[in-house]
Amino acid sequence: MSEFAIELRGVRKSFGRNEVLSGIDLAVRPGEVTVILGPSGSGKSTLLRTINHLEQVDGGTVRVGGGLIGYRRKGDKLYELHEREILRQRARIGFVFQNFNLFPHLTVRENVALAPVAAQHRPKAEVNAEALELLARVGLADKADEYPSRLSGGQQQRVAIARALALRPEVVLFDEPTSALDPELVGEVLDVIQDLARGGSTLVIVTHEIGFAREVADTVVLMDAGRVVEQGPPAQVLDNPSHPRTKAFLAHVL
Ligand code: ADP
Ligand code: MG
């Protein structure tokens, strides 16, 4: 087993001639919270998406729990896995999107219970009970039978977090989980993520919430133009940055 929950080495990704990730190295230990900051277009979403093979990499490797993601090694060559195996890997990696992406025609509880039953073939009664526990954990036990459209954005995002957790993932990735929310709803979602962090979950969070990063992150990573320009504890990166790109970014968002 690897000492890292997530390990990226030399990850490269281009869209046509546009190189979006130019050799990313990133290592996250189990139970650690990593916050990724950086200007729009710097490659943050693409980076997260490579971790569960929503994007194929052009070079380098991604490992979760020590296992290669998306590919199998044969000699010194890598071959892409079959879709079925990729889906199985994805089930080990929770993903929370900016726009919640709940299924509108399913109730809150059905949203949470769907994948564990459909993809992991777990018993329906057990999954339903666990869905209620997860909804209680995000403060929404009383909304189990509502449809998403009846909920606020903050409530919908908390359902999306419960849904991600229902797969019992090894790591959870968040892509700007509060960016689509009205300001007064941001706190309730950040509180839920902070609870997960305190509970020892391994999290990678792309966000512009600097105060949250300072409080919750073990490591802050600053990306710019497809590269990691600086990484370290929040006190170092946020309060005493060494790289001019970090200084410029922080001056812009603070
Ligand atoms: P960020 O999340 O930091 O704002 P992204 O990873 O979304 O950055 O995007 C980085 C760059 O990659 C941008 O220039 C964006 O236009 C480009 N890009 C992202 N996804 C695609 C895609 N599917 N096809 C073409 N270009 C893309
Ligand atoms: Mg993005």
TrEMBL record:
What this protein catalyses is: a polar amino acid(out) + ATP + H2O = a polar amino acid(in) + ADP + phosphate + H(+)
Record-given protein name: ABC-type polar-amino-acid transporter
Q: Does the keyword ATP-binding apply?
A: yes
- Please name the InterPro entries in this protein's record: AAA+_ATPase, ABC_ATPase_HisP-typ, ABC_transporter-like_ATP-bd, ABC_transporter-like_CS, MetN_ABC_transporter-like, P-loop_NTPase
Q: Which organism is it from?
A: Nocardia aurantiaca
Topology versus the membrane: Peripheral membrane protein
Q: What is its EC number?
A: 7.4.2.1
Annotated Gene Ontology cellular component terms: plasma membrane
